[in-house]
Design a protein that fits this description.
Helix content: 55-70%
Number of strands: 3
Distance between the termini: 58 Å
Largest sheet: 3 strands, mixed
Strand order of the largest sheet: 1-2-3
Radius of gyration: 25 Å
């Protein structure tokens, strides 16, 4: 979470007190928004928090894929393994499997 009162600073201020801001980020786990000429331009985040964010994004993408797959099954948009194998072999010019 971003704390607007504590986590938005100018780039100049960040340059003057980098070690203090690094300690703040490590302690809070919050990113810093850095402004240039009063406009938000950069977000700085510690590596551990950034990795956690990437992990959450990956998890959300996986859940989205699962939901889409379940919706396809519910709507009857499925292909049997046999159908898939037949189409795959035909598309790749592979001989049919003898059973």
């Amino acid at each position: 979470m971003l704390d607007i009162g504590k986590d938005i600073h100018s780039l100049s201020e960040f340059k003057r007190n980098t070690s203090g801001f690094l300690d703040q980020m490590r302690g809070s786990g919050h990113p810093l928004v850095l402004t240039i000429n009063g406009k938000a331009e950069l977000v700085v985040q510690d590596a551990v928090s950034y990795q956690k964010m990437l992990d959450h994004v990956e998890e959300l993408e996986a859940l989205k894929g699962i939901k889409l797959g379940l919706a396809d099954v519910a709507a009857g948009r499925i292909t049997t393994l046999g159908q898939f194998e037949k189409e795959f072999r035909k598309k790749r010019g592979l001989p049919s499997r003898s059973r």
